Amino acid sequence: MKAKPFLLSSLALSLALATGSASAGENADTVYVNGQVYTVNTDQAWAEAFAVKDGKFVKLGSSKEIMAFKDADSKVVDLKGQFVMPGFIDAHTHPVRVKMVENVFFNNSTANLEHKTPEEFGKLLQDYAKGRGADKEWIFGKAFSWSYFHNTGVTMDRHYLDKYIPDRPVAIEDEGGHVVVVNTKALELAGITKDTIAAEGGKILLDKNGEPNGHLVAGPAIQQVLKYHPAHRMEDVTEAAVESMKEINAFGITSVKVMEGDREQMQAYHDLDKAGKLTMDVNMHPYINEFYFGKSILPALKEKHKYETERFRVDGVKTFIDSSPFGRAAALHKPYAGSDDYGKLYTPYERFKDEMIKFNGMGLAVTTHTVGDRGMSLVLKAMEESAKVNGIEKVRELRNHIAHCFMVEDQDFARAKNVNATMEFSPGFWTPMPVYEVLAQDMPNGMEDIKNFFPIKKAIAEGNNYVAASDWSQSPLDPLQHIETLTTRRMPGASESEKSMNPDAVIPLENAIRAYTLNAAVSLRLEDKVGSLEQGKKANFQIMSNNLFEVPLNQVHAQYPTKVYYEGKLIAKNDRKPVEAS
């Protein structure tokens, strides 16, 4: 589907500029004419012009229609055929954590985990401890790759970390974020010994002598150590909120669902909005217990009204039902290959169900990290139980959120639709096929399971509210990368000759864009305000380098917003050479 713009000639534009204005009270602050405007509104998918007043859309239509909203004080912007679309909405992101890792904690993620020897990685840790981390009680951060130590004769464990930093507690995440390795000092500070029992849902691994080797697997075990980490400084949190917002806006994103949070983050977003500096809508779903540091969110939730503003809202919580497909930590209906292991739950079902009922009863949505098909089924079962207690209409209105949806049984799409759950898919988790080919050795049905990961096409067919999201920093922030991969099931930029993760599961570009705009707005319960270009909604829009419908699908990722607007105000500009449409 391509835009069919009705571009004004210079003479026609001059005549339009001379026309009369709309009725009193309707004159616009700015009118934009002569564009290719994709609205994502099915009632009016395309327009060539629009009028903005007081940060909202007054009208969309032809340039002649829109020029009627001009008066002597209105600004006129000639789009000259440029492609305009709604601001993106990222329904799963961790912005403050990203910038805390980049600017405060130890950080090996900016190098994209390029290969290092054990000695090179150890030197990075030492340099941080002597430099940016010199005044820190703990050395904490991310990330290392297990590949650094493969076939090297060196083991990544507490003894390895002791060699480089013996005098302070050290805790470093692996590349997946669900394993943390700590040194001896950290274990001692937390009182972890060979006799310590791991918190339910986690593992404390032992060496051949039966002593803790420093490997903490999954949040409950990680929290047993990191709960002793000092509190974050308010000034660091605020700076991280500001810096991440700038990066988010530059990618054309004007609304987010933040899947983390604590009292300090609530305060930071509150203060930014009150100071007139918040340039995106923020819905926060903090962890019930912070994933790494274990702090309970309940005390802050009870006072969330103190922090909420016009643009910032705490309307849910984040939890886990299972963990990761790697390490057999996803909960499956069938056992892993060659075993009777169905995968361990991160949260026992009875406790999870009680939390769902409790928080829904408080008027809060529950977002659940879900990977395995059994995990998915249990999440839906808990939502159904919540509906019995809290009422089906209340549960539907809350739009409980299922994050990732790696594996979904066919019958569970209808169950998700019945409780009006948001089904979030993660196109940024596409990785080179060899990684999945290794994982396939563990899966009950081998590569057949892998190719059916992230079944967004089925969700569309079944009428579910489907969204796509980044889970930044677990995958890149750029929505255009993810929109492309949803339409190709390949890595960004890959040619049609390259291997695809199931070409039968690709979706049309219109649906991929909707997953990052209007559907995401529905998941945030903001569809009456954002997500499409419509009269009365916020004027959140972006002008693109090229019309996304006119470039090859494998070049969608190479496009970018040249200008980004939030509530009618320019908030970001990008100046780089566009990839030409062909």
UniProtKB/TrEMBL annotation:
A Pfam family this chain is assigned to:
Amidohydro_3
Supply the source organism's classification. Answer: Bacteria, Pseudomonadati, Pseudomonadota, Gammaproteobacteria, Oceanospirillales
The protein, known as: Amidohydrolase
Keywords assigned by UniProt, alphabetized:
Signal
Q: Which PANTHER family match?
A: IMIDAZOLONEPROPIONASE, PROTEIN LONG AFTER FAR-RED 3
Q: Which residues cross the membrane?
A: none
What InterPro entries would the database entry show?
A: Amidohydro_3, Metal-dep_hydrolase_composite, Metal_Hydrolase, YtcJ-like
Q: Where is the signal peptide?
A: 1-24
Task: Pinpoint the Amidohydrolase domain residues.
Answer: 75-571
Using the record for this protein, list the coiled-coil segments as residue ranges, or answer none. Answer: none
